[in-house]
Write a structure and sequence with these properties.
The protein has 722 residues and is α/β, with parallel strands linked by helices. Among the domains are: 203 residues, Rossmann fold, CATH 3.40.50; 116 residues, Immunoglobulin-like. 30% of the residues lie in helices and 18% in strands. The protein contains 20 helices and 26 strands. Helix 1 packs across helix 13. The structure holds 1-deoxynojirimycin.
């Protein structure tokens, strides 16, 4: 008779129960292991599968995963391996797959539909490679811009991050986990990782439980609601307790309170770090016990956990029931994905960067670009432009444009890799479109980003002098972004500032294009350039989309999801600050950010009027609608991102000066007025009070609607909650 666990017509819970009852302690602990393929030899990898029944590997690509899966199918219970990869903005560790804009760049589209589609495309390409799971999305709040991983975030706003979290999770996981092109999403890094001390990666996050709940938890709550199958516990401690050792955060809040049903994986060697770095445990037995008791289900890359955990269960120090719970969560997902039934498929490489995927990527890349300045309508470029000088270290640098988590950097750094798919650097995009218009393009790199030598600047300036307009492409590079690459100084580095000053002195219109992982402090550029365009890490089609914007074939419609500082000493500059007494300012620095959250220009202009709330008195269970008239008063059709903010006028704890609670991206034709309606559930106005309870406190709220987060740009209406 067929064993229950092999019978796919049975419910998942029965199959899990059946197989669990057959498993030895060693087989159970094996399921909790995630082995880094790049850090073991092939012989060791084979042993991990055949002798210790490892449940998961990370960072394998196609052929290797097929080999390991074959080995697993020959073990006693034939439990399939689950393969995880950092497909953070496309399946980009694989050279040949679609490379999307970074999470930060894509968030500037404020287009959740396109973000969902990007997730779908990534899922198809990851699945086509025989892998099951992406360690994405990053739901950290990008608050300290010195942090090296800001590029991986969806920006600084908890609400917006939650919207994109749900969208990309829907995209990754598709309609059903059992579909052949669905992959598991992983909400990370749970939680508070983006605000570790001094912006230093993996240090302690100094936050009260109230702040944890009010600021860091909301996007993760949205991830649970969206059915996210896995969570990753971050490296950091919060108020001295490492997340991986925190029963309160993992079991009590995530699993109990939020009802998360999937499994939790640690981040890289978190269990070992409890001993080596964070020093809350003296040895591996203690660290393994803590990790299990706190509620980590799968252990990433702490291979010593295996022996220690087997021993802990055999000696009764850790109850087998706790291990069963972890393994149950992991196996439930394996069954739900249909892994036990799936044939070991060959690579479907025709999916990689196929025309349909490129099209989705192009749409998203276009909408991710943010126009920050456009003095005297410098842009779009007019028919008078016959010669363009493209100057700068990031003009023709696909590595800087791709950003982190691609085959250049992971799993093993390969800075000299050559992309196997056609890519558009900024230069290539400009050249292609210019040549179709009979415009000449001169190019010079000008200088380096990591080196202050100025020798080649003079030649670059010569090149610029021969042109009608100068497009300077500057920013940062891969060495300045990523894990362990936090920066104290957010100025543009190398000789870039000198280059820009020399280019400015040529007297030609100066358009600055920023290619950078995260906001830099660029007050000189904001002041002196005629036009400024932010592209962040725009991926393989950045240059194509940029050129379309420069020539006006695309009207820019992105807006910042993160604030820009004047200076790194001004940090933090996020918009949803708690108010202070003295206007929140420094005596030597403006109190406002250089560019605020929600800000971005278009080649047309929009006028806001008539803010009306469907109700001005309501109860905590109501949903109201804010409607506003938005008129396109320019000559071009365009898209506008209408934003709704709220402020709790009097509250029992100090609450932010304003917080985003809704938005709509709308297309409005030149001359047209659209009445834009944004729903607001009053429950969204809840705060976390002193007793850790979420409550909507009765009283007055200010509802503000407009084009960005600046006070002076917002229409205001009063709402009373009874
Ligand atoms: C460490 C990183 O913090 C995490 O984001 C990533 O998913 C894992 N390593 C696996 O590469």
């Amino acid at each position: 008779m067929q064993e229950i666990y092999k019978d796919f017509s049975r419910p998942v819970s029965e199959r899990v129960q059946d197989i669990l009852s057959k498993m030895t302690i060693e087989e159970k602990i094996g399921q909790m292991m995630q082995i880094s393929f790049a850090n073991v030899s092939r012989e060791e990898a084979e042993e991990w599968v055949t002798k210790r029944f490892a449940g998961s590997f990370l960072h394998t690509l196609g052929e290797d995963s097929r080999w390991l899966q074959d080995l697993a199918s020959q073990t006693r219970l034939s439990i399939p391996i689950i393969f995880g990869i950092d497909a953070i903005h496309g399946h980009a560790l694989y050279n040949g797959a679609t490379v999307f804009p970074s999470q930060l760049a894509m968030s500037c589209s404020w287009n959740e539909k396109l973000v969902e589609e990007a997730g779908r495309v990534t899922a198809r390409e990851v699945a086509a490679d025989g892998l099951h799971w992406t360690f994405s999305p990053v739901l950290c709040i990008g608050r300290d811009l010195r942090w090296g991983r800001i590029n991986e975030t969806f920006g600084e706003d908890p609400y917006l991050i939650g919207i994109f979290a749900a969208a990309i999770i829907r995209g990754y996981q598709g309609k059903s986990l059992s579909d052949s092109d669905s992959i598991l999403a992983c909400a990370k890094h749970y939680l508070g990782y983006g605000e570790s001390t001094g912006g230093r990666d993996s240090y302690d996050t100094q936050a009260s439980i109230r702040k944890v709940r009010e600021v860091f938890l909301p996007p993760f709550r949205e991830a649970v609601k969206a059915g996210c199958a896995t969570f990753m516990a971050g490296y950091q401690s919060i108020d001295g307790t490492p997340v991986s050792a925190s029963k309160k955060l993992l079991r009590d809040i995530l699993k109990e309170e939020l009802g998360f049903k999937g499994f939790v994986v640690t981040d890289w060697n978190n269990t070992g770090s409890l001993i080596i770095n964070q020093k809350v445990c003296g040895n591996m037995a203690d660290a393994s016990r803590k990790a299990i008791e706190a509620g980590n289900d799968m252990i990433m890359s702490t291979n010593e956990f295996y022996d220690a955990a087997v021993e802990l269960v055999k000696t009764g120090v850790v109850s087998e029931a706790l291990v069963d719970e972890a393994v149950r969560r992991i196996l439930s997902i394996k069954f739900a994905m249909g892994l036990f039934e799936k044939k070991n498929t060959t690579s479907k490489s025709h999916a990689f960067a196929c025309p349909e995927h490129i099209e989705t990527n192009l749409k998203l890349t276009r909408e991710s670009i943010v126009l920050l300045k456009n003095e005297n309508n410098t842009l779009p470029l007019g028919s008078n432009v016959k010669n363009i000088a493209v100057i700068g270290p990031n003009a023709d640098c696909i590595k800087a444009q791709f950003g982190d988590w691609t085959f250049f950097s992971h799993p093993v750094p390969n800075p000299d890799a050559i992309p196997k798919i056609p890519v558009h650097t900024m230069l290539k995009g400009i050249e292609e479109l210019s040549s179709s218009k009979g415009i000449h393009v001169f190019y010079h790199k000008g200088c380096d980003i990591m080196n202050a030598a100025e020798e080649s600047i003079a030649e670059a300036v010569n090149c610029a002098s021969a042109a009608d307009v100068v497009i300077a492409v500057v920013g940062d590079c891969l060495d300045q972004n990523g894990e362990g690459k936090d920066r104290a100084d957010l100025n543009i580095s190398g000789a870039q500032q000198k280059l820009l000053e020399k280019l400015r002195s040529c007297g030609k219109p100066l358009i600055v294009v920023l290619v950078n992982g995260k906001p830099l402090s660029v007050p000189w550029i904001a002041q002196n350039a005629d036009a400024v365009i932010e592209t962040f890490n725009s991926g393989m089609l950045g240059g194509k989309a940029l050129a379309e914007v420069l020539f006006g074939e695309v009207n820019p419609s992105g807006k910042l999801t993160i604030s820009f500082p004047y200076h790194s000493g001004q940090l933090p500059v996020y918009y949803n600050l708690l108010p202070g007494w003295h206007g929140n300012k420094y005596m030597d620095m403006p109190e406002k950010p250089l560019y605020p959250f929600g800000y971005g220009l278009s080649y047309t202009s929009f006028k806001y009027s008539n803010l009306i709330l469907s109700k001005t008195r309501c109860s905590a269970s109501d949903t109201i609608v804010a409607s506003v008239d938005v008129t396109n008063i320019g000559k071009l059709d365009g898209k506008e991102i209408v934003q709704l903010y709220a402020n709790d006028v009097v509250s029992s704890v100090v609450t932010p000066i304003k917080e985003l609670k809704g938005f709509k991206k709308v297309e409005i034709k030149a001359g047209e007025t659209k009445t834009v309606q944004i729903p607001l559930e009053i429950s969204q106005l809840a705060i976390c009070n002193e007793n850790e309870q979420y409550v909507v406190e009765p009283g007055e709220f200010l509802i503000m609607v407009g084009p960005d987060s600046r006070d002076e740009m917002l229409l205001k209406a009063s709402l009373t909650v009874e």
